[in-house]
């Protein structure tokens, strides 16, 4: 991937049992009709390093759109996305007259060019995108911000992409990021992301933050984001109340939530990962969302070396 997983300290991550399937939507997922909304998806698509799914750009596009439709998604956040992948999805989702809802989108580049993106088209930029359910104008492009995160390394300028958008008729500041895993970068970048998103919350925005954070939930460097369990931030995480993933004395089965969750990276799709672990997140502003649900789809070899992460939440105010 540029490689967000290959050299990580995943020995500390939580081992879990996973059910594998051929695609991003898994048969053991609870019926989404019974889950709240809005609905969110976050997915590191490994665009520059992973092969094109089934050797076909349309097959890759249709796989992502199928997962988005199956979850009845309101916000889709994609990381490690080549510009050509974004335009494939943007053009397909931008004005669907039948077969599913339309989506507005914004893009941000973290690399001006990388050879691995050439398979997606002549524009070899690489970065992040946010898709919001609705037609053109759903996302306020004037509110789009790209924050350059501290300590760029290995040629990639890590970024935080944010924009104000409508989600189920309410205003949301949607933010997407992909943190580095090297040295002191995770700590510095997580603190900066927390500060920027707290600023949006202080302006009265409901904030949704998703991305690949390259750290397990109990890592203290994520304290600036979490609202609980020793954290100092404004967020709860979508998959923090699934007791099947509560482990350790700090995560008793009697508790309601824990810094935990289902693995989003494991050896079947990520050969350099030694143990399954959670490194992808959907963070939800605790002042606006308190009923949350999360689930990681099975990985799809050749599609990505991450799992797609799904979330549902309920408005609380």
From TrEMBL:
Task: List UniProt keywords, sorted A-Z.
Answer: Endonuclease, Hydrolase, Nuclease, Signal
Q: Name one GO molecular function term.
A: endonuclease activity
- According to the record, the segments passing through the membrane are none
Lineage: superkingdom: Bacteria
- Pfam families associated with the record: Exo_endo_phos
Checking InterPro entries in the record gives:
Endo/exonu/phosph_ase_sf, Endo/exonuclease/phosphatase, GPI-anchor_lipid_remodeler
- Cited SUPFAM superfamilies: DNase I-like (SSF56219)
Extent of the signal sequence: 1-27
| Endonuclease/exonuclease/phosphatase domain ranges (all copies) | 41-294
**Region Disordered: start and end of each range?**
230-264
Protein name per the record: Endonuclease/exonuclease/phosphatase family protein
Its lineage opens with: Bacteria, Bacillati, Actinomycetota, Actinomycetes, Kitasatosporales
